[in-house]
Amino acid sequence: MKKSILSFIGVLIVIGLVALVDLFGVDLLVFELPGYKQGIILGLDLVGGSSITYEAIIPEGTTASEIEKGMSSAESMLRSRCTDLGYTEAVISRAGNNRIRVEIPNVTNPEEAVKVLGSTAQLEFRDPDGNVILLGKEVTKAEVKVGVTDKSGFGSSEPYVSMELSASAREIFRVATKEAAARTDGNNYIAIYLDDVLKSSPTVGSEHAANGIDPIEGVMITVGGNREQARELASLINIGQLPFSLKQAELRSVGSVLGERALETSIMAGFIGLGLIIIFMIVFYRLPGLMSAIALLAYTALMIFMLSLLRINLSLPGIAGIILSIGMATDANVIIFERIRDEMRLGKTVRAAMDSGFRRAMPAVIDSNVTTIITAVVLLALGTGPIKGFAMTLIIGVLLSMFTVLVVSRFLLNCMVDMKLTNTKFYGVKEEVR
To answer: Can you give the pTM of this predicted structure?
Structure first.
């Protein structure tokens, strides 16, 4: 019994420590996590800011595939520029076939942001001495491919960027790579800059010191097998050959007063809902309800911790995802506790009823949560803007709710049984079961 009491107290202490980290953050020299006020990134609809919509001016004769490729490159350009300007919390999303929306929370000078974001992208290839050898317009195509990157033919298959150059640029590039490969100071690379900001510096192998890289067959740029890095680099290179220009179509400001009210209302609604759920569970399920309430508090503390750790952009739809996952956790608890009650009414001991109840309820709980996660993954993959925020918080919330229900709640209930709290009245069952 003493061990169970200590275990129960230990769980409460851990929940309390996580809550303190959520409030004040932690700095362990090698790891630093800010408190929720600094760690949680609030979206445009919560803190106010500016929403800028750009429209692509598409020339006649541009094919659908060229438009799609250009829009993807334009998205990458705007995302890169927002990061370079310090707008790391900005959300860039597609709005229809030919529009891109940029939402920047907490921006102080939207006109200046529009001016900088709207300028023409300048992509340059430079040698190690900083001399410009090619401009982005000389690239005819850059795409991600998968294949053997070792010219011996025995290398592993991995993603890489294949780049094709215009006829006028091929000889310039070949000479530049020859000189870079022959350098003896260790600077054997060709740097890629966007608006004077270094984006990548692929190394030129020493095997090209004699003749350089012949671009006629295409230029292969390896990225260490990382598909996402390959995709980003290909999009970056394609920025230099956008088939259209962008114009500002709309500039909309969101007032901070509206955001503050929305945030306060959402938080209040969340706490009211959580409080009502806790009261319902305790009144209806007694001791198991109390343990589920503690598990819900653990869920809340862990959810805030994950939002701060992953620095997820939290918007109103994101808050809705969190509240929905709380409902999923409550639903799972109800299914499990009803199963436990049924087993106890059949005459099983409390511990046996608990083991059987969790085991029998497990398939239903897992199925409902997995289908929800699948739906959220689809929304995350295909959605844009706030939809992605909703999907991300829902995925994290469902995973955490499964952990707190199947692990924390069960552990706490076992502690109660070990502490000899086996009277069936504590579990909402009238019949006396030993």
So the answer is: 0.66
